[in-house]
Here is the input.
Amino acid sequence: MKLSLFNISNFKIDGGAMFGVVPKVLWNRVYPSDENNLIPLSLKSLVVEVNGRVVLFDNGIGNKQDDKFMSHVYAFGGEGLIEGLAQRGYKPTDITDVVLTHLHYDHCGGGVYRDSEGNLKLTFPIARYHVSRAQWDWAINPNPRESDAYLPENLLPMRDLGALNLIEAEGEFIPGIELRFFNGHTRGQIIPIISYRGRKLVFVADLFPFRSHIPLPWIMSYDVEPLKTLKEKETFLKESYEGGYIYIYQHDYFADCSELQLTPKGIRATDGFTFDELMKKLK
Ligand SMILES: [Zn+2]
Here is the structure.
């Protein structure tokens, strides 16, 4: 099995929205904001190559949104989707599977692009695009609170061009990759657990966007059912701590990974480290 992690781009959103009921005096100490109260987020994607399959987890915002949309997300830096893959030796036609943790625009927009004639095309032409059925049903008929995050041009081409595969149940996806469902952030978010050199690596997506989201009440305002998130965090943190799981943070601008430790206040993240450091650690 070969793993790669790369940062497609960074963007900025309101700091308070990322921490829900937690006061700014607390979150700003661990995740500093700028003068407009904005904080930087990364958009990292994970690639897992195993048994002839090349699986890409999430694919960023993409480049088909107009200037007005992009002026609200303050994108900066990063390697780009195609360029980041190329740096790690992959062409778009090498990707056999795209697993989308969920369909918010910052997780799936790179999977569909607009060609020079304005047609929507699949970025990964031979790949199956996998989404949980619960998330698909939720996203194509969105509630008003999440509807800004579900863009039809990101979703419908996957189905209409025949690439979509709906995952009905949690469990083994392919040997070495297990998919779990979580429902607090949005319905049917997929969290992948990768078995690698005797350890479990978890791409924690929007269950734990940052290392600083480990304490139970630190929950985004975006979550549709925060009390469900809290329960899901509590149960999964216990399993993760006991199993020595390593978390890979998709959105954390300051850390790629951490382990978990037990403190008098409960389970907390260890210091963060880079993905390269993780790969060296597991050599
Ligand atoms: Zn999300």
Observations:
- The longest strand covers residues 2-14.
- The chain has a mean pLDDT of 97.
